Amino acid sequence: MDSRRLPNIDGVAAALVDGDGRVVGWTAAAEHLLGLAAAQVTGRPVRDLLADGTADSDALGKRTGEVRLRTGGGAPLEVAYQVLPLAGEHGEGRALVLATPADTVARRRQDEAFTRELFLQDRLGLAFFDTDLRLLRTNTHLLPYTGLPADLAGLRLGDFLEPTDAAAAEAVLRGVLASGEPVVRAELPIRTLDDPGPAVVMEVQAFRLQAPDGTLIGVTALFGDVTELHRYRRRADVLHRATAAVGGSLSVAGTAEDLAGVLVPGLGHRVEVDIAEAVFTGDEPVPGADGLMAVRRTATAGPPGSDDRPLGPLGRERLGGPAGAGPLSMTAPLHARGGPLGRVTVRRRADEGPYEGEDLELLREIAARAALALDNARRYTREHRAAVGLQRSLLPPAETAVPAATTASVYRPTDTATGVGGDWFDVIPLSGARVALVAGDVVGHGLQASATMGRLRTAVRTLADLDLEPDELLVHLDDLVSQLVVEGSEEERERGVADPSGATCVYAVYDPVSGICQAASAGHPPPALVHPDGRVEYLPVNPGPPLGVGGLPFETVECVLRAGSVLALYTDGLIEGGTGGDLDEGMAQLAARLGEADLGGDLAAAGRAIVAEMSTAGLSDDVTLLLARLHPVPPEDTAVWTIDADPSAVAGVRESATRTLERWGLDALVFTTELVLSELVTNAIRYAGGPVVVRLIRSSVLACEVSDPSSTQPRMRRARLTDEGGRGLYLVAQLTERWGSRYTRNGKTIWAEQSLDPPPLSR
User: Over the stretch 79-98, which tens digit does the pLDDT of each residue have?
Assistant: First the structure.
């Protein structure tokens, strides 16, 4: 071994200098640091190594310092040095000079200062664990935690922390040791064995420590108390979730349930929401003279406890008191627009710690927002009741029975928010035991469409009272819609009032005496006819244009229907659902459902089943289905006579009518019927000529009809005392339930109806 080379000292460059200041030994680390071999340096004065040739020869006389040395590469190197004098037999006057790059020394000093100050500071916890997770060093003795030993060295977390908390923390640390992946911002609950009360929340950062050779040393954890921040975040989260939850429902009970679901476990383990009874009906909650009002426990969450607030035997409690909090219970009123709506109460377990002022403020804020949602739900309930009431007032009963038909209907609006829409149907009794069946569809949905529908339905009823042919009725209805469109104000359009143009309607009249059904359509799908044998076909109606187009004709089709047949009127929403708008496919599906349905039994149940099957894919439009089981009038319940325009024939009509009524068992109606027929037949012969056709029909009423070839409608007037005539129609109106006239293809028909159970004549 070269005597000029010294062994390395922990990787630090070293040189041995004799008493004359010459280098007599040189380490491999020095060769590596300066790039100068031992042969190049030994025997030479130390000052030759200085990069600054003019440097004071006493530069190395100091025990420590920094100098610039020459290197084999030519660039000087700033080093920090330390001179260690040697003693002993061979060390007289000699010294060992150690050198390290100056920047390395500076970093080491910084690391030492950082580590020293880190363990001294008291704002951030620091713990150093070995591979067995035993504490080697920590500054927790400087932190204000209760229940910690004075000296933690050599202890495990389970020696002073609650077992569950210690296990959770050690699981995090073991994961870091095993994977080498650091943990950032892990939040852990911490409770000591001596203080097992409400946990503090620690935010933990942990990383693994290794020696330069890769040997695992342990794990370091930095932790800070973020309990208040955690509480703030939790409160903010509860407020956010409560605001989102209570704003998503227009149901009073649903809003209360959503509120309870957020508050447990957000603010406690038990919550009770009590709402004033008036809120459920949409009314304003008004306390009585004693300040009390009826309330309903609407929603609860969490396990019930012995401290639950009772509602009392009559369910009456004060709701107007201020918010308040006890150690483990809080109550806040639900107030909106200055009035009480209810209250909300939350409770927590003793181990969760008492409520604080911030908790009460949070409950107040949540209660205020929930109260607004409840008030919106209350007002929606009131408006919904009004809308549904309007809809019901605009539509006939779901089931009706008239002499010509038994009907059942199903109505499903697509606007589930209001429960109303623009579809409509009607069953209109006409003279002569006939019945008009109507179905229509207004473009749009909601309350405005329902209001427009009501206008059209009223118009149809008014026109039906004139006993017009179906095509003629649709012409008049089309003219009316065109006028409504023209008269519609800009204000109505801005308010979203439904435009009646584009509405569709089908109008069918069934005569149970002749069995003839007449139908016409304004852009509406044709009625379906279910024969008694179950065969289904659609009436050959040629749909005209939708209402409001104007200038185009409508066409009436006539069909003879057999007894026991069922006529189905519907809107396009029924045949569009689940077919992608393919009407042909929808009509085929409807025909199949009608053929399979039990239309001879409960007609309403059959209709509901058909709509449910056709609407499984969801509703994109309002759906209406009207089923009418047709009842013919038997031939033996009608009597018809045709007479010439001869006044002497009136007596024969009275005699024939009397015999017919006696045969029907309607002797009580003979007198009034003779008077009515005498007046009507006499007027027809006198003013219209012949032939005159007289018909009696027995159904739910007794109908007397007199038809003549004149198209002049009669007019009832009150005769003066000196007038010789003019009392005929007035007398008819007084003796019958109702009367009227209708145009026919050959003239007109005057009709009058009497109840089959007339009151006794007063004497």
Answer: 999 999 887 655 567 899 99
